[in-house]
Amino acid sequence: MRDELETNRNVPSSPRVKVSTAVSARGTPIRFFLSAIVLGSICFSVAIAGENHAAAQVPEAVSQPTMMRVEDAAGWWPTKGTAAKEQLVGSAACIRCHADKSVKYDGTAMAHAAVPAEDSEIARARDVLRLQIGPFNYELQSVQGKNVLKVSDAKASVSLPLSWSFGVGSIGQTYLYELNGNYYEAHVSYYSRVRALDVTPGQSRSIPATLESAAGRRMSTSETQLCFGCHTTGSMLNGKFDPGGISLGISCEACHGPGASHVATENLGTAPPGESLIFNPARLDRVASVDFCGACHRTWGDVLTLHPGLGLFNLRFAPYRLENSECWKQGDGRITCLVCHDPHQPLSHDTSSYDSACLRCHSTPPPAKQSTSRPVATCRVAAKDCVTCHMPKYELPGLHSSFTDHRIRVVRAQAPYPE
Fold first, then answer.
1. Given its phi and psi angles, is residue 225 left (phi above 0), alpha (psi -120 to 50 degrees) or beta?
2. End-to-end CA distance of the chain
3. Cα within 13 Å of Cα(37), Cβ side
4. What are phi and psi of 204, to 5 degrees?
5. CA-to-CA distance for 260 and 311, rounded, in angstroms?
6. Spatial distance between the Cα atoms of 276 and 7, rounded to a whole number of angstroms
7. CB 320 within 8 A of CB 366
8. What is the distance between the alpha carbons of residues 380 and 375, in angstroms, rounded to a whole number?
């Protein structure tokens, strides 16, 4: 379970689309035709996904679905997974020059997005966690240093040694186990607010039909790759899933790409500068910047092509919600994830800490060095704790937590949730 659950990939996804950069006989890139197909599917999704989606407007700058970004031959992208093992150096090599960032980053949820199940302190801290769903009884407990999920009914039971724990646990934690070479997502997860088990996000809340389905659901190869790609580093090597190469959590090279060449050049201290040999997401334009975070947190294109009609549950996908904001639609280059969030530091829960970002744009008169974007007046109600009104929190059924809506707007009383 991702720490904010906006990143959760437990929703069924469409089959992977292979993007080709080949050129047709007439010289027109085949990617152009695929882009037209994807854009068409976006429009079709908007049309069929209910009244709220039908009324939605396509942002002025349409983000790309992650599948297209990842398949782009040039540059690094989260979950790309094309690096060879020898191109990865690990975070220890990065710390030598970036110790200040490393110390702060170690306190983030991303840095601890996954651990082997036996290292999960949540299950070890309690004798046993229990849940009853219809005829099925669940018990999560530590047995001889291993975290085990036992599922039973009146006729039989199965004990499953858990392999992985996803999520640091500030909201919850989801578990994976292995059977016959396949990964399964446990049907129940731990939720921190209630300190108890409940159905895993994205799984059906109806009573399972069999003991096997009560235990968990088998994950497809592509879904396994995506889950590990957003919770660990180096799980994909040379385009193939390789759990033997995993580094726990989202480490430096998950976002900055393979660092061997960069480190080697910096160690030599000779030209060309090593900075040119590492990827820096801060240099991306506003659309690409939000798409970059959206590789795991879901872009606008991802939601409309893969997950239309989720209603309130699309709240989990912060990039999608942000790109539905009026600020974004007006083309303001200051509206990106990085304006409010430093990925190298823990998420701030102090609502006033975001005021400076809001007032950077909403200021009258504008500051001396105003960007090319037009100045916007400050709120007539207040000039502090802006997000408490303009980015409200919502409770999602069954997820035992509230989530911040990143669709920045004037919230009208009694207005329906804007999908």
1. alpha
2. 23
3. 9
4. -65, 140
5. 44
6. 30
7. no
8. 15
Kindly state the tokens that stand for 335: 């509206």
- What is the spatial distance between Cα 123 and Cα 248, in angstroms, rounded to a whole number? 19
- 20: pLDDT strictly greater than 60: no
**Does position 62 have pLDDT exceeding 70, yes or no?**
no
CA neighbor of 209 nearest in space, from 133, 113, 109, 294 = 133
CA 312 to chain centre: 17
CA–CA distance, 21 with 35 (Å, rounded to integer): 11
What is the three-class DSSP state of 337? helix
Please name the amino acid found at residue 219. M
Residue 1 pLDDT > 70: no
CA-nearest of 321, 403, 341, 318 to 104 is 341
What global pTM score does this model have? 0.81
Geometric angle at alpha carbon 180, from 177 and 185, rounded to 5°: 25
Mean pLDDT of 115-141: 89
So where are the chain's domains?
30-73+281-404, 85-111+226-277, 114-218
Indicate if the pLDDT at residue 265 is higher than 80: yes
Residue 371 has pLDDT above 60, yes or no: no
57 touches 418 (CB < 8 A): no
Q: String of b and e for 158-177 (b: at least 16 CB within 10 Å)?
A: eebebbbbbbbbbbbbbbbb
User: Residue 58: its pLDDT value, please?
Assistant: 53
Residue 133 is which amino acid?
I
Pairing label, strands 157-166, 172-179: antiparallel
Mean confidence (pLDDT) of the chain: 81
Torsion of CA 247, 249, 250, 254, to 10 degrees: 20
Closest by Cα among 107, 219, 208, 240 to 164? 219
Q: At residue 54, does pLDDT exceed 80?
A: no
How far from 247 is each of 242, 254, 337, 360, CA to CA, in Å?
Answer: 11, 10, 25, 38
- 3-class state of residue 43 by DSSP: helix
Residue 160 CA to residue 183 CA, distance in Å, equals: 12
The whole-angstrom separation of Cα 74 and Cα 89 is 21
